[in-house]
Each structure stands twice: as structure tokens, then as C-alpha cells.
Amino acid sequence: MMYVYWCIELFATFSEAFLCIIFCGTFIENTDLKKNLLKRVVVSFVATALMLTINHIELYSPITVILALLIMALAVFTIFSNRIKALITTIAFLLLVSLIDNVIISTISYALGISVDDIHQEFSLYRVLAIISSKTVLLLTVIIINKLLSKKRTLQRRYLILLFSITTVMFILTILITFMEIKNKAVNSVISILFF
């Protein structure tokens, strides 16, 4: 049964890595979903392997999050040459992932009447439900953003600086709140939803 959970983690991690590259490509090069598809898939698999190795060591830790951010940024760097835009959009994407994950987890917790701590357990059916739901919402969100913005002009520098500032602050706050709630085992889904 443990292999089933790791297969689901593989699916979730790969989808995050691949969708990160698609998301970043939308803002960096205004490209559609099919451009350089094979290269994007290969880079996503390499990033997935690295992130799963880190997650296997320790699933919830600030160091894991920092290493995952670096791996995602390096994956995006191998596809796109503009490093600054790549870093900004990677952080924006990870904030989007955090937002979707926390909203889905809070919604499942409220709908099923269970604690968020039960969902965060490493091998639980609630976690599987949360992973599948959040990755489906993430996929739809990235596809919609790509379809709406793939034919638009590139972002101006001042918007990129503003986007970078806002997403960096929000990402740091999200990580701090999430880890404080997990560490204290007093996760309050209402506070998380109000924050977002």
C-alpha cells in the first residue's frame, strides 16, 4: 500500500514541476502548451526525482521547501534563458500551489469534519483525496492562465518587480504560517482561508 502513496506523490510532484514550467513559459515567452514539450517533460522528470528524494528524507520541513524552490528554479532556468523572470514566475507559481493546496485542504477538512492534521498524515486516504483535488484545480488554473495570456505581450519590468515583491512576501508568510500550524498541531483552517 505504501507504493500506491508514493506513486500518488510521484504524480503530484511531476504535475507541479511540469505545470511550473508551463506557467513560467506563459509569462516569460508567451508560449502555448505544446512548445518544447519533450524537453519540458524530461526536465520535469529530473526535478521530480530530486524532489521525491528530498521528500523521502523528510516530508514537512523548511529545508525541504527551500530545496524544492531551488530545484524548481533550476528546472525553469534550464528551459528559459531569462533568469530574473524565471525566478519571479517560479515563486509566483509556488505561491499559487500553496494557495490551492491550503484552500483544498481546508475545504476537505470542513466538508468531512476532520482535522487538517489527519490530512497531513503521510499515508492517509484524506491526503490522497487532497492531492488529487488540488492538482486537478492547479492543472485547470494553469491551462486557463496559459490560454488567456499566451498571445499577449510580455510583462513590463515594473510589473515584474511588483509581482516579485508581492509573491516573495506572500510565499514567505505562507510557509511560516503553514509550518507554525503543523509544528503546533493546532491547524486552524479558518485562519488559513482568511489569510488567503
Oligomer: single chain
Report mean pLDDT, rounded to a whole number. 77
Proportion of helical residues: over 70%
Tally of strands: 0
Q: What's the main sheet like?
A: none
Structural class: mainly alpha
Radius of gyration: 17 Å
Q: Tell me the series of helices and strands, N- to C-terminal.
A: HHHHHHHH
Query: Distance N terminus to C terminus?
Result: 34 Å
> DSSP helix count?
8
Query: Globular, elongated, flat, extended or rod-shaped: what is the shape?
Result: globular
Unreliable stretches (pLDDT < 50, length at least 5) are none
Q: Name the beta content range.
A: under 5%
Blueprint of the fold:
Elements lengths: L1 H27 L8 H21 L4 H18 L3 H30 L3 H5 L4 H25 L7 H28 L4 H7 L1
Structure, explained:
- There is one protein chain.
- The longest helix is centred in the middle third of the chain and has 30 residues, at 83-112.
- The chain has 196 residues and is mainly alpha-helical.
- The chain has eight helices and no strands.
